[in-house]
What we know:
The protein is mainly alpha-helical.
Amino acid sequence: MRVAANNPNFLDYKVGQKVRSCRLAKRYTQKDLASKIGTKYQVILQYEKGKRKISIRRLYSIAEALSVSIIDLIPEHTISNENSYLESEGKEILDLVEKYEKIENQELRNVVYSLITSAQASKENSRKVTRIEVAKNLVKAGVSVEIIFQATGLSTEEYSNAEEKTTSVDYRMGQRIKKLRITRKYTQEDLAKKMVLSHL
Length: 200
């Protein structure tokens, strides 16, 4: 199966093919690799076909299981191509992962891993927020639900609930409490203890 370069799953497919190539070079079956990284062979099959995204953590596990560098699993053109999804943020994450491989101190490894996953989660969260904003603007413009879904990939519930969440009194009150808590340098635990004491 070949995937066109303009297909949104193209990079997933190319990474999957690199995984497959390295797996075959080690003479591992999909089941062998799956057992080494703690998953089922169907997941490896989906990775190799580009049907499922491989998280950075999982890619690192695969690289370790195949005794290769994570860089060996990234298609070359994605590293050098400025228009690829591995632009500045992606390259920074890749650099972190490369350095992560060299860290021997487990506590430090845990800190670096947390930074990597936080960066990835933040990037994905900001994408969803942007999609929600686009969907809300399309609703205001009177665009049909079907077109909004095609443009953003969000269901009506996803962007309606997001709007309700941010405009509800409970949400705004919670945000105000959070702001005051942070201003006074209280942790959530500190605030909870103060609330318990005030009810006694």
